[in-house]
Amino acid sequence: MRKRSWAEPYKIKMVEPVSMISQEEREKAIHEAGYNTFLLRSRDVYIDLLTDSGTSAMSDRQWAGMMLGDEAYAGSENFYHLEEAIRKHYGYKYIVPTHQGRAAEHIISQLLIKEDDFVPGNMYFTTTRLHQELAGGTFVDVIIDEAHDPENLHPFKADINLQKLEDLIKEKGADRIPYVTVSTSVNMAGGQPISMKNLKEVRALTNKYGIKIVHDMTRVAENAWFIKDREPGYENHTVAQIVHEICSLTDAATMSAKKDALVNIGGFLAVNDKELYDKACNLVVIYEGLHTYGGMAGRDMEALAIGITESIQEDHIRARVGQVQYLGEKIMGMGIPIVQPIGSHGVFLDAKRILPHLTQDKLPAQALAAALYVDAGIRGMERGVVSSGRDKKTGEHIYPKLELVRLTIPRRVYTQAHMDVVAESVEAVYENRSSVTGLAFEYEPEYLRFFQSRFRKL
């Protein structure tokens, strides 16, 4: 049977006009931004694929919920709606709202990590690793080796290598490992999922040594979709059921609700341990706000409660991941190298293979992201040596195996026509790839340098 077309499972009620400035203006804009797409002005961007964080379109029900904001300083009614939604759909017992995910990462790191601890996880994420380091810990990557190979077709490249994890526990001692970080839909690997089988094995291993699992659940619904699609035995489960089962295998969670949960701001820390919850409530007051609002307004908590419910609906998540797959397949069909299998939240261009004339010290992913913007006003972001930062002992650049440009798709924002424009721009840059020149640092901040660094052309 011929493959049938599909359409987005929503109607458009409101539009935000965008326009593309001239190529001459784009060249000037990227130069003034120091060839860092984070430093571009939004008004100069045509299709914005910088991130899916806080850039999704909210539904009519979410906007209606915003009108029900209870902005009481303490005991907001919206907090209890949010608490109910998290308990129902994720299963965690205690919830501390935060302004976004990195605040939850900070709190859990301060509460659980001691000086000279080691925190294993399935590939690092920039803010997570930094909070762990600032608390005195050292992140250790225990993801399977396949995750570092963009051409490997392993269906669950976020799986943890159990031997690596147990070797670390035996070498360092369980008392120096406060928890294992398990990310669903691992960002830095290209939006790759972890399997339920592997997560169950990790749970059994950590139980053996009395070690907690902290779940980075930013894109848990997307991971659940891949389990439903790829893992035998789950094809007849709903996404909601799979999400709940994933969460049940962990002890705590940090959530940047600006991704899966379809809101423009917000997050939370969720735990099952009452003593840990009490400590988190005490700490959140210092950095965020009272434990019943954290860093969120009542109206935003209401939108989040509704967004959680919408995020696990089958039609929504099928179309969300489907749009990413559509763009990825179109780019692959042009013979352009990307991370495979195609991930859940974006298409990751393989800058090493696209720009083989640029060695990694010439920052090929940063250069490729800038070239895409100049071509068609498309803003992506670097995920390579710039994002990896420097070795804190030697001060040298960390050169990861993956040198990528992430084209991240906001949820419910763009149409298939936008995806066609993006693919054609990628093709145009690829055809003229020999003209892309390398970059060098001109300004580099101490922390999370990819956000604010400036570069110059070599």
Structure description:
The protein is an alpha/beta fold and 458 residues long. It has two domains: 23-52 and 314-457, Aspartate Aminotransferase, domain 1 (Alpha-Beta Complex), CATH 3.90.1150.10; 60-311, Aspartate Aminotransferase, domain 2 (3-Layer(aba) Sandwich). It is 40% helix and 13% strand. The chain is built from 16 helices and 14 strands. The chain has helices at 23-32, 60-66, 77-89, 101-112, 126-134, 162-172, 196-209, 220-230, 239-248, 274-287, 298-311, 314-333, 351-354, 364-376, 385-388, 416-431, and strands at residues 47-48, 94-98, 118-121, 138-141, 179-183, 212-216, 252-256, 267-271, 346-350, 378-379, 381-383, 404-408, 439-443, 454-457. The strands form five sheets. The protein has a five-stranded mixed sheet, sandwiched between helices. Helix 4 runs parallel beside helix 5 (126-134), helix 4 (101-112) crosses helix 10 and helix 12 (314-333) packs parallel to helix 16. The longest helix has 20 residues, at 314-333. The chain is globular and about 60 Å long. The relative contact order is 0.17. The model has no long low-confidence stretch (mean pLDDT 97).
